[in-house]
Write a structure and sequence with these properties.
CATH class of the largest domain: Alpha Beta
Strand order of the largest sheet: 1-2-5-4-3
Number of domains: 3
Shape: rod-shaped
CATH superfamily of the largest domain: Histidine kinase-like ATPase, C-terminal domain
Largest sheet: 5 strands, antiparallel
Helix content: 40-55%
Order of helices and strands: HHEEEEEHHHEHHEEHEEHHEEE
Number of strands: 13
CATH topology of the largest domain: Heat Shock Protein 90
Radius of gyration: 48 Å
Distance between the termini: 45 Å
Length: about 450
C-alpha cells in the first residue's frame, strides 16, 4: 500500500473516530437536555396546580373524593389527582418516571411527575405527564442526520486527504522516478535538485545524488581498470603466443616438445578468449557501444547460419528457418550478431547428434518475439536460474565452454532493452525467446 493511501486512511479514520464520538455525545446530550426541559415544565405545572387547588372545579372533585383527570385535545399532556391512603406526615418520594399510559385505546409513553400532598386532611397523588414521542422523533432525526454528516465528512475527508497527500508527496515520487527508476547509467545521472519545501525530501534528494556521485567515480575507476587490464594482459599473451609459434618453426624441435608447445598455445588462446569475453561484457555494461545501426534480424540469422554451416553438418542437425516477419531494430549490429551467434552456437553445441534447431518468430500486439528451439540436453530449473551467471557451465562434455556465452547474451539484451526467456526440460531440449520491446516493422 502506498504511503499516500496510508496517510489518507489514517487521517480519515482518526476524523471518523472524532465524528463518531461527537455524534454520540450530541445524542446523549440531546436526550438529557430534552428530559431536563420536560421536567422543568412539569415542575412549573406542579406549582401552578398546587396553587389552583382552591379553584371551584378542582375543589369540587376533591371534596367528593373523586379523581380529577384532565387531558389536552391531542392527548400529549395530562393531569391526574386522585385520593390515596391518608398519612399525616409524608415521607420524601420520587419525582419523575417514564411509563406507558393507555388513553382512549391509544397507548403513549409519558414522562410523568408524581407527587403526594395533603389537602383538607386528605392525601392525594398528583401526576402530571407529557408525551415523549416528540423527543424520540427528535432523537431519531438527529441519529439520521449524524449518520449523513458522518458519511459526507468521511467522503470529503478521504478526498481532501488524498489530494493533499498527493500534493505533499509529489516531490518524493519525482525523486524516486527521476533519480532511481529511470537511472540506467550512473554516468548520465541527473543531479538537478527536485523542487520541494519538505526538508526530509531535500535530504533524500541530496543523499541519492551523493551516492550516485560515489558510484560514478567507481564506474570511472572500473573503466580505467578494464582498459589497463586489456593492455597489460592481452599484450603479453600475444607476445608469448608469437614466441611459441616461432619456436614451433624450428626443425630440431622434438615431437614431445612440439606437443607441449601446441598445448601451451591452446591454453593461451583460451585465456585470450576469456579475457576478450569479460572485456566485451564490461564494455557493454558500461555503455561503451553506440546504438546507431539499423539491424535486420532475419539477415543476421542467415549470416550466422552460413558461418556455422560446417558445425551443423558435422552433428547432422536439421536447421529450420521459419521466420515469417522482417523486422529491424535500432542498435549495435556487431553486438546483435554476437548475441544471436551465441544462442545458435549453444543450440548446436548442446544438441544431440541428428537433432534439430528451429528458428521462428511471432508478432502479438506489436511485440516481436524471436524463438530459438533445439532438441538438446536441456536444463533443469536450477540450471535455468543460474544460466546467466558468469562462468556457469552446464554439466556436459563440452571442453570449449567457458560459461560466458549466456552472460554475454544477458548483457547485450539488457543493453538493447530486449527481454530474454529460457524454457527448458532436462533431456528434451531448450527454447530461448527474445522479446523486442521496440521493434520497427518494415513489412
Amino acid at each position: 500500500m502506498k504511503l499516500q493511501v496510508k496517510l489518507a486512511l489514517y487521517n480519515t479514520l482518526t476524523k471518523v473516530a472524532i465524528i463518531l464520538f461527537t455524534g454520540l455525545l450530541i445524542l446523549l446530550s440531546i436526550e438529557k437536555i430534552s428530559y431536563n426541559h420536560i421536567e422543568l415544565r412539569l415542575e412549573q405545572d406542579e406549582q401552578e396546580i398546587l396553587r389552583s387547588l382552591s379553584s371551584k372545579e378542582i375543589n369540587s372533585y376533591l371534596t367528593t373524593q373523586k379523581t380529577y383527570t384532565d387531558y389536552n385535545i391531542l392527548k400529549e399532556e395530562f393531569i391526574s389527582i386522585k385520593p390515596v391512603e391518608y398519612k399525616s406526615v409524608l415521607a420524601p418520594n420520587g419525582r419523575f418516571k417514564t411509563e406507558s399510559r393507555k388513553i382512549d385505546r391509544n397507548t403513549q409513553d409519558y414522562r410523568i411527575l408524581w407527587h403526594r400532598f395533603n389537602f383538607n386532611n386528605h392525601t392525594y397523588m398528583l401526576e402530571i405527564g407529557v408525551a415523549i414521542e416528540s423527543v424520540e422523533e427528535l432523537k431519531s432525526i438527529i441519529k439520521k442526520f449524524t449518520i449523513v454528516v458522518l458519511v459526507i465528512a468521511l467522503v470529503l475527508t478521504l478526498i481532501s486527504d488524498l489530494i493533499f497527500t498527493k500534493f505533499l508527496l509529489a516531490p518524493f515520487y519525482k525523486i524516486i522516478d527521476r533519480k532511481l527508476i529511470k537511472v540506467n547509467d550512473p554516468m548520465n545521472f541527473d543531479y538537478e535538485k527536485i523542487k520541494t519545501t519538505t526538508q526530509d525530501f531535500e535530504l533524500l534528494d541530496d543523499s541519492i545524488s551523493s551516492l550516485m556521485k560515489k558510484i560514478s567515480n567507481l564506474f570511472i575507476l572500473e573503466k580505467q581498470f578494464i582498459a589497463n587490464v586489456s593492455h597489460e594482459l592481452l599484450t603479453p599473451i600475444s607476445i608469448i603466443s608469437s614466441r611459441l609459434e616461432n619456436i614451433l618453426l624450428q626443425e630440431e624441435l622434438s615431437e614431445g616438445s612440439e606437443n607441449k608447445m601446441h598445448a601451451s598455445l591452446k591454453t593461451l588462446n583460451r585465456l585470450k578468449s576469456i579475457i576478450n569475453s569479460l572485456l566485451l561484457i564490461s564494455k557493454v555494461e558500461n555503455n561503451q557501444y553506440a546504438k546507431t545501426d539499423m539491424v535486420m534480424i532475419a539477415a543476421v540469422i542467415m549470416e550466422i547460419q552460413e558461418e556455422l554451416e560446417d558445425r551443423i553438418e558435422e552433428k547432422r542437425l536439421k536447421f529450420t528457418n521459419n521466420l515469417k516477419y522482417i523486422y529491424t531494430i535500432q542498435g549495435n549490429r556487431p553486438l546483435m550478431h554476437t548475441l544471436l551467434f551465441n544462442l545458435i552456437n549453444n543450440a548446436i553445441k548442446y544438441n544431440n547428434a541428428a537433432g534439430s534447431i528451429i528458428i521462428g518468430d511471432e508478432l502479438k500486439e506489436d511485440m516481436y518475439t524471436l524463438i530459438i528451439t533445439d532438441t538438446g540436453t536441456g536444463m533443469d530449473s536450477k540450471q535455468i536460474e543460474n544460466a546467466f551467471n558468469r562462468f556457469e557451465k552446464l554439466d556436459t562434455d563440452e571442453r570449449e565452454s567457458y560459461g560466458l556465452g549466456l552472460a554475454i547474451v544477458k548483457s547485450i539484451t539488457a543493453f538493447h532493452n530486449i527481454k530474454v526467456q529460457i524454457h527448458s526440460v532436462k533431456g528434451e531440449g531448450t527454447t530461448v525467446k527474445l522479446i523486442f520491446n521496440t521493434p520497427i516493422p518494415l513489412s
